[in-house]
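Sequence, please.
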């Protein structure tokens, strides 16, 4: 079961660090994607990291240079460090697993398990 944590309320320009954890399975072999969905908008891909043996990453243009995805294998988590946050980053953030181990894109059909999401609100 995937569980996201770390969301909250932050001022514009601030930072948050989200974590995606699974208590039952090791995340090493999966590609992990982070997605977000703002009210009234479609879900969009934010970032992805391939399996530990590969480690390649993918970012949406809207977050490049501001967000960093990484693995903490000791904790069995995939983290999303979000810096220079903007009001338009406000959304529910979800993580999901791609069993192929590769970041194949943002199509939801590539991802089989999803977390429940964590709310990120960027507001002054």
């Amino acid at each position: 079961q995937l569980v996201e944590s770390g969301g909250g309320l932050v001022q514009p320009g601030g930072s948050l660090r989200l974590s995606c954890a699974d208590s039952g399975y090791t995340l090493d072999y999966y590609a992990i994607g982070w997605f977000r969905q703002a009210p009234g908008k479609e879900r969009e891909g934010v970032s992805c990291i391939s399996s530990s043996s590969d480690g390649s990453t993918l970012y949406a243009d809207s977050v490049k240079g501001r967000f960093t995805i990484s693995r903490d294998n000791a904790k069995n988590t995939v983290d999303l460090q979000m810096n220079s946050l903007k009001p338009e980053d406000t959304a529910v953030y979800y993580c999901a697993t791609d069993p192929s181990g590769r970041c194949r894109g943002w199509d939801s059909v590539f991802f089989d398990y999803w977390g429940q999401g964590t709310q990120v609100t960027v507001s002054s």
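The radius of gyration is 13 Å.
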